[in-house]
From TrEMBL:
Solcar repeats: 63-147, 160-244, 261-339
Name the record gives this protein: Solute carrier family 25 member 3
Provenance organism: Capra hircus
Protein role: Inorganic ion transporter that transports phosphate or copper ions across the mitochondrial inner membrane into the matrix compartment. Mediates proton-coupled symport of phosphate ions necessary for mitochondrial oxidative phosphorylation of ADP to ATP. Transports copper ions probably in the form of anionic copper(I) complexes to maintain mitochondrial matrix copper pool and to supply copper for cytochrome C oxidase complex assembly. May also play a role in regulation of the mitochondrial permeability transition pore (mPTP).
Similarity comment: family membership: Belongs to the mitochondrial carrier (TC 2.A.29) family.
Subcellular location: Mitochondrion inner membrane
One cellular component term from this protein's GO annotations in UniProt: mitochondrial inner membrane
Length: 362
């Protein structure tokens, strides 16, 4: 058990190519060319693998990207909407910590003031906004991953795969936040300003009348601050955790695992990634919540007023929410891929051409 933990720690998502090769036992030219070769590994392209399965489309095709976008809509829209009560309490803790002193106290005060119906405030903008975000986040991630992989070439795509995941996810989230920003602004107004509006139908016209289009997009920069690091961690940590789980924890190769077993690995890796996501993105999340509640404040002003301790209010609630959310999103997204019989490449392995350059194959 201890050795498995050590292996997982060494296989962290931020290993540089040279360190990763050392870890794999494949680094640098050998001092003894006649020495024993490294352990044999199966070769695969980062983009796709030869798997004995009938797919509904080719990896990287237009149909593939469209169905991945649909998977993003389903995974993000449903999970965020299901967690609206927890999100509502978390937002109120961030904007009014004196009144909502903790997660359990927050639920108690909300139920006392608004009843059970009050816990569902903001469900409509949440569902619409995060469905659009999921479309762009997952759909564009697959697009940019293929694009950047082709630009790097097979060998560099393997060596720099963590950087590839980070770049592809950051690029996708840039566009996803533009799609999310209007609904996120409306959701925060509904959830944190008592008496302002109870529904999206009431909130949107009122916001436009008061501040124009600026009301819907003034939070986009803080959203980038919150969501881009979150998504980079979400995708890179997930991809590398899946790789580490199959390498050090799962007792048999992925090709021998059933679809349900593979989905369990997906869920576990998603939850691990989600915990790190919550921590990385929480300060910016606090700024977004306060900024959308107040008029005339800038992100820097809000950050200065909250201080170091203030930006971490509601972290425990966010870890529970984001950990569960991320795990469920990856599970649902992967299930959609299974349902539509989309290509699901196994964890990457060193290309044969790179092995030959390093002198590990003849």
């Amino acid at each position: 058990m201890y050795s498995s933990v050590v292996h997982l720690a060494r296989a962290n998502p931020f290993n540089a190519p040279h360190l990763q090769l050392v870890h794999d036992g494949l680094a640098g030219p050998r001092s003894d060319p006649a020495g024993p070769p490294g352990p044999p590994r199966r070769s695969r392209n980062l983009a796709a693998a030869a798997v004995e399965e009938q797919y509904s489309c080719d990896y990287g095709s237009g149909r593939f990207f469209i169905l991945c976008g649909l998977g993003g809509i389903i995974s993000c829209g449903t999970t965020h909407t299901a967690l609206v009560p927890l999100d509502l309490v978390k937002c109120r803790m961030q904007v009014d910590p004196q009144k909502y002193k903790g997660i359990f106290n927050g639920f108690s005060v909300t139920l006392k003031e608004d009843g059970f119906r009050g816990l569902a405030k903001g469900w409509a903008p949440t569902f619409i906004g995060y469905s659009m975000q999921g479309l762009c986040k997952f759909g564009f991630y697959e697009v940019f991953k293929v694009l950047y992989s082709n630009m790097l070439g097979e060998e560099n795509a393997y060596l720099w795969r963590t950087s590839l995941y980070l770049a592809a996810s950051a690029s996708a989230e840039f566009f996803a936040d533009i799609a999310l920003a209007p609904m996120e602004a409306a959701k925060v107004r509904i959830q944190t300003q008592p008496g302002y509006a109870n529904t999206l139908r009431d909130a949107a016209p009122k916001m436009y009348k008061e501040e124009g289009l600026k009301a819907f997009y003034k939070g986009v920069a803080p959203l980038w601050m919150r969501q881009i690091p979150y998504t980079m961690m979400k995708f890179a940590c997930f991809e590398r955790t899946v790789e580490a789980l199959y390498k050090f924890v799962v007792p048999k190769p992925r090709s021998e695992c059933s679809k349900p077993e593979q989905l369990v690995v997906t869920f576990v890796a998603g939850y691990i990634a989600g915990v790190f996501c919550a921590i990385v993105s929480h300060p910016a999340d606090s700024v977004v919540s306060v900024l959308n509640k107040e008029k005339g404040s800038s992100a820097s002003q809000v950050l200065k007023r909250l201080g170091f301790r203030g930006v971490w209010k509601g972290l425990f609630a966010r870890i529970i929410m984001i950990g569960t959310l991320t795990a469920l999103q990856w599970f649902i997204y992967d299930s959609v891929k299974v349902y539509f019989r989309l290509p699901r490449p196994p964890p990457p392995e060193m290309p044969e051409s790179l092995k030959k350059k390093l002198g590990y194959t003849q």
